[in-house]
Amino acid sequence: MQPSPIVSVIIAAFNAQRWINLSIESAQSQTLREIEIIVVDDGSTDDTAEMVMRIAKDDPRIHLIQQPNAGVGAARNAGIRSARGKFVAPLDADDLWQPEKLARQVQRMEERGEETALIYCWHQWLDEDGVALGWESPFRVEGMARSAIILRNFIGNASVPLFRSDAVHQAGLYLTRDEQGGAQGCEDWDLSIRIAERWEIGLVDDVLVGYRQTHACMSSQAPSMAQSFQMVMVRARLRNVDLPLALFRWAEGHFQSYLVSKSYGSCDYPSCIVAASRAILSDPVLILNRSLHQLTLKSLIWLATGKRRSAPRRPNSDDAKKAPARSPRSSTSLLDQIQNRRWASVLGSECLPH
To answer: What pTM value is reported for the model?
Structure first.
């Protein structure tokens, strides 16, 4: 038995043979060496398990758990139940970490003290070949952030947070696919909300995660994401009856707007139209969203003509050189002004801006 690790890395993997070696390598390369890497093979039908076992031969920190397919939430929970670390850090099987990610998050957690149970950082998008697609509008939220994280999932994605293990066990583990009626996609947001209801959140203000974007990734499955979101928000509303209903309407409008762009990018035009309708019904101010109108109109045209546009061309390294990483930009539209005022009011109510 190896000494107790500081961090338990939890990698849920399903048919992940294309990228699993890169994700494990990014965990192995952490400057914080006192870690364990728990890979949960969630009923893969490809060579995922065999690849993990080959890598584990040369690194005793790697442990493989195999189970019948039960979804990403159940897979992460299996890893957490066997984890020995003071902290747990999920890593999706196609994402990447910068080498200093865990060390800096642990340091920030210790600086903030026991009142803090989640440390996040910023991420950049990667395409299927690992080309960086840039980053945009990083949040700077610390402290009590219950309302803020209900309004927007500013954590970003499941590969970002570092949690205190005891807090996760007290708050409850990830929602499983069965608990979401067969859907999945927002279980990481749900866990972050439940953590924020009881503990503070801290930030390492640097880009330390590579978040891979593919047409097959879970965030591109709009119907499943929408169902998962509804489950998460119903639960959050029942636990937080003191919060205004408007907060939840704004949250749905924002999330459905996100699904509009994801659906259109995946050529799922019916889902694009459904998401746009739900966005405006939830938050009528989104009628001012020009992008929402444009993508909905394009979707209607594609459906009416019976044509489907081809998948967007993936950028190559030359594209990346021509288009440097995106950074925050000023917003001047009426819609942006309204949204910014809302965000500021939520932050002012309970959060401490960094």
So the answer is: 0.89
